[in-house]
Amino acid sequence: MSDVIATIEGRIGCITLNRPKALNALSLDMVRQITSALLAWVHNEQVLAVAVRGTHKEGPFGAFCAGGDIRYFHQAAKAGDPSLEDFFTEEYRLNHLIHTYPKPYIALMDGIVMGGGMGISQGASVRVVTERSKMAMPETHIGLFPDVGGGYFLSRCAGRLGEYLGLTGHLLHGEDAVHAGLADGMVASGKLAHLWQTLIETPFENGEAVERWVTTRFDRLEKSGLSNRAEMDAVFGLNSVGDILQKLESASDEWSVQTAQTLRHRSPLMLHVVLEQIRRARGMSLADDLRMERDLVRHCFALRPVSDSETVEGIRALAVDKDHSPQWKPARSEDVDAAEVAAFFVSPWPAHAHPLRELN
After folding, report:
1. Which of 55, 113, 146, 326 has the greatest CB tally within 10 Å of its CB?
2. pLDDT value at position 254?
3. Run of H or E residues at 7
4. Which residue is catalytic, options 68, 119, 123, 174?
5. Domains within the chain, CATH numbers bracketed
6. Annotated catalytic residue: which of 54, 67, 116, 150?
7. In the prediction, which pLDDT does 262 show?
8. 139 labelled catalytic
9. Residues of the chain falling short of pLDDT 70
10. Which of the following is catalytic: 110, 147, 231, 289?
């Protein structure tokens, strides 16, 4: 069975991520299959809208997409495998295609939605979560940065929520994701199978009608907003990672203490890179942000020796040796060299040769 099932049912282009044992983590082949289906459906008049979901070991739904296949990243980086370059170029191209897709694209984000899973859902015209959704951009945990357009969509969250989510990798559950502006509405997970079936059986007249119908299915939210929003804005609006840590560590409330502890476990170097990334992205178009992220990821994997790659070390500690003790270089945020951070933002390519030069 293919890792991506792409079929036309009724008037809907249906994409099911079908790699449940890996929580539907994206491989290069999966990126290519999704891209191919979306491009084929752009001019197919039968397809009014696209719906995307994941599978769990029990069947459809239950997990959306845990991100890119980080074990593959680790192996490919250590082996100097050139397919790693293709993976990021083609994944970011797919992210751009979804954001700019001319037909409604409905993402049913049940279960885990992280990293690359956010990349194939944040550009959706309707982003649906459930009470089981677990959403995050946890890349600083593995010495990476929130890519797949993360700079773009995190920087557009209200206030300084984007900086908070990008630096800490904080996990949002379904309702909180709606309050964060990273989902449009919530549907109980028990209703998803019926929603999917109705989508493919209803003779909708146009794409707008499909979109409208899905939004009428949203449940009422229980809460009125995210907790600690004022603290997030006050702390994560500060000038630098050093200022943020100092503010958190000089406070004694539970949120500040826990947030400081979280940041102290992340890659110090990448915290500085991510803060700069999100602040630059706030003034960028999606295409320019994806080009910047393509530069950053080349610095992470290819332009630093493998022994000095924060990302290779972070993945080793989390997913390969599983010792959960990454040896970050430097070990403390206070010792990060500003010149080293600045180097990440120097493009390795002239503009005319950039792998994402055609995006607009």
Report:
1. 113
2. 97
3. strand 4-9
4. 68
5. 1-360 (3.90.226.10)
6. 116
7. 98
8. yes
9. none
10. 147
